[in-house]
Amino acid sequence: MSEAASLELGRFLPYRLSVTAECISRVFAESYERRFGLTIPEWRVMAVLGEGAPRPTQAVIEATEMDRVKVSRAVTRLVDKGLVTRRTAPEDQRSQILALSRKGFGLYGQIVPLAHALQAELTAGLGAEELALLDRVLESLHAKAREIGSRS
Questions:
Q1: What percent of the chain clears pLDDT 90, i.e. is strictly above it?
Q2: Which of 13, 25, 33, 111 places its Cα 20 to 30 Å from the Cα of 39?
Q3: What is the reported pTM?
Q4: Burial class of residue 127 (count of CB atoms within 10 Å of its CB; 0-12, 13-18, 19+)
Q5: Which of 34, 20, 8 is nearest to 123 (CA)?
Q6: CATH 1.10.10.10: does it fit domain 10-151?
Q7: φ and ψ at 109, to 5 degrees?
Q8: What are the φ/ψ torsions at residue 119 (nearest 5 degrees)?
Q9: What's residue 37's pLDDT?
């Protein structure tokens, strides 16, 4: 088989990024689920809503880059838990506006320090320059992937 026809999966960038992201997500998920009873999609929705003002569901979908069904299920569970509120958008009866409830903000306030601590532990072996470079590389790869995806 020629070199062009073979693929060493362990050196294939999309695979490596996926495996690394999945491993990191699993570490965070275990902590969030064990301590707070939240799944990764639920936490991502809460994290987006915790950044500021209430948002339409579509804005949460775009910010998390999760599919509509996954966001919808996470929102339903969060509403059932009393962590998120939803109301019909006044300008579009088909759209919903999502926000953290008082209880949701309280839980968010407990999770954020844990998220910062986990991130600090994960990046402890990297210097400031490496972190800045990693940030630039990830942003560049993300932008390129979105560009390629928009052509499909």
A1: 75
A2: 13
A3: 0.84
A4: exposed
A5: 20
A6: yes
A7: -65, -25
A8: -65, -40
A9: 93
